[in-house]
Amino acid sequence: MTKRDEMEQLKALEDRIAKAKAAIEPPRAAQDHHSMAQIGWRMVIELVSGLGIGAAMGYGLDVLLGTLPIFLVLLTLLGFAAGIKTMMRSAREFETGKDTTVPPKAAAEQGDKTSGG
């Protein structure tokens, strides 16, 4: 066997290995440089919406009951806390890469239903 034949066999083997690796490994997702900005905006919107909904409900109750500053302050703070809680849940979801809104037991039951088992 000549050196040239050995080099051709080696190249063919490398090509076969590369094809086998490509078939086994999933293709890498293209990097979306906007994805982190989208996550950040989602968190900001969750926080601001919680704050806004709490303030609107508090103002509405104060107007109806005639107690202007009490419910506005209380429900604004409650809305802020709800926004923070929702924002932290979203951060945990992105960190782990899975949806945390479904409890593990319910997720396992859903998996059984969808897998046909």
UniProtKB/TrEMBL annotation:
Q: Which UniProt keywords are present, listed alphabetically?
A: Hydrogen ion transport, Ion transport, Membrane, Transmembrane, Transmembrane helix, Transport
Span-the-membrane segments of this chain are: 39-57, 63-84
Q: Where is this region: Disordered?
A: 94-117
* Tagged with keyword Transport: yes
Q: InterPro entries this protein is in?
A: Atp1_alphaprobac, ATPase_put
Quick one: a GO cellular component term?
Answer: proton-transporting ATP synthase complex
Annotated GO biological processes are: proton transmembrane transport
| Task of the protein | A possible function for this protein is to guide the assembly of the membrane sector of the ATPase enzyme complex.
Q: In which family does this protein belong, per the annotation?
A: Belongs to the bacterial AtpI family.
By what name is this protein known? Answer: ATP synthase protein I
